[in-house]
Specification:
By secondary structure, the protein is of the alpha/beta class. It has one domain (7-205): Rossmann fold (3-Layer(aba) Sandwich), CATH 3.40.50.300. It has helices spanning 18-31, 46-56, 65-89, 100-109, 115-126, 141-147, 160-176, 190-205, and strands at residues 7-11, 36-40, 93-97, 133-138, 181-185. The radius of gyration is 17 Å and the shape is globular. The two termini are 27 Å apart.
Length: 219
């Protein structure tokens, strides 16, 4: 195993491209000799997947905003305990599709709850675990919405004003956590975004900062 295992999170609004970029980034890390596990938040555990269905699927279940935030935290606590911490302890890198910043933005900045209160709950839910690097795919809401070629989930259906607050919230969090967060232009081609992601990771974690253009097919 080469070096210390790292925890990398891809963030962004729905339609930003993070879910399609995650496997490409993981494949590139593996080509650099790293063992990698990927996961999505909420999800990637039986408990998390069950909570995800309550939160995002059209099940007819009404969830209070505070309860919604706590359900995201419960799924995240299980993900940390069952997937992320064991992987890091074994020397395996973790690449996650969302983590605590998503709840701070979705339920806080956009949803009306206090972001700082959410942040404090997040410390409890994660046991203080924080990503080594957050890669934010920044994109305007209209472009992101046009990319979604599937039925919208409950959060995605909250309308354009909600999505605009999401973008503003993510940008505010990126400015707040500039040492940990790198903003990537999500409007670029998938290939250009993949290169930008690899460059950010290489510059942060690889001593020579090289290898960002040598990658398996990122499509």
């Amino acid at each position: 195993m080469n070096g210390v295992a790292r925890f990398i999170v891809l963030e962004g609004i729905d339609g930003s491209g993070k879910s399609s970029q995650m496997p490409a980034l993981a494949a590139w890390l593996e080509s650099r000799g790293r063992s990698v596990v990927t996961c999505r938040d909420p999800g990637s555990t039986p408990t998390g997947d069950a909570i995800r269905r309550i939160l995002l699927d059209d099940t007819g279940v009404t969830v209070d905003p505070v309860a919604e935030m706590l359900l995201f935290m419960a799924a995240r606590a299980q993900l940390v305990a069952e997937v992320i911490r064991p992987a890091l302890a074994a020397g395996t890198w973790v690449v996650a599709d969302r983590f605590l910043p998503a709840t701070i933005v979705y339920q806080g900045h956009a949803g009306g709850l206090d972001p700082e209160a959410i942040r404090r709950v997040g410390v409890v839910a994660t046991g203080g675990l924080a990503p080594d690097l957050v890669l934010l795919l920044d994109i305007d809401p209209a472009t992101a919405r046009a990319r979604l070629d599937r039925p919208l989930d409950k959060l995605e259906s909250r309308g354009p004003e909600f999505r605009q607050r999401l973008v503003a919230g993510y940008r505010a969090e990126a400015a707040r956590d500039g040492d940990r967060c790198v903003v990537i232009d999500g409007h670029a081609t998938p290939e250009a975004v993949a290169t930008a992601l690899r460059t950010a990771v290489a510059e942060r974690f690889f001593a020579d900062g090289s290898g960002a253009t040598a990658v398996p097919d990122a499509r």
